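Practice record 12: protein with heme C.
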Amino acid sequence: VKLHYGFWVIVLFGFFVICVGACQRNDMWDQPKIKTLGESEFFDKRQAALQPVPGTVARGYLMEDDFLYKGIENNEIAKRFPFPITRAVLERGRDRYNIFCSPCHGRTGNGLGMIVQRGYKQPASFHEERLRKAPPGYFFDVFVSGFEAAKANYEKSSQTKRPKEDVVHPVLSKQLKAEDRWAIIAYIRALQLSQNVPVTELSPEERKKLEKGTEQEVTGGTH
Ligand code: HEC
């Protein structure tokens, strides 16, 4: 019985030590500090959260490069891409295009996406002569100025109740960073090429395949 009693004394003592130890944690709770939107005795306007110094640029948001971020090179609409177009870039472009553009512009760029088939304004086909000849910077400009203009139109339209045909283009600049926009434009170039290669640019094997293909169509066709 005596041993039993001693055991409980030890357990209770241990418990007490743990409790006292735990209470010491209040030191960290009570340390002097400022909470984000709390009040401050020290700073102006008694605000704990300070405004950044004017002109502050967040890391990674300098965007000094007009070519990359605005599609403008030597004060002109860029006639080339700001970085080499690799297979990986094209695949990224295809991925983004199919998500963000194909619902209206169609998977092949013909302007007959599902939203258009359901009544949205039909955009021009990317295979038009005018758009095949347009420099990459023009497409980029639609993202930057076109989208912005569309946004302004949209805001006005909600006040003056303009017809919905006036809302020209969805604002997608938030979803697509500059590199992705260029990747999409590169993919549009690939789409354009896919529908418009002069026969003279094909290799002899490719030409053979093409001739075979048309033969089959002629002999096997029922139209
Ligand atoms: C909600 C439908 C919709 C989506 C999504 C959309 N567009 Fe458009 N786009 C249009 C319409 C409609 C026009 C034609 C606007 C006009 O003629 O007033 C257009 C026009 C354009 C033009 C100008 C073509 C010309 O005739 O000069 C470009 C370039 C373009 N879109 C690129 C894109 C790209 C790239 C994407 C994807 C990132 C995209 N658009 C997503 C509907 C859409």
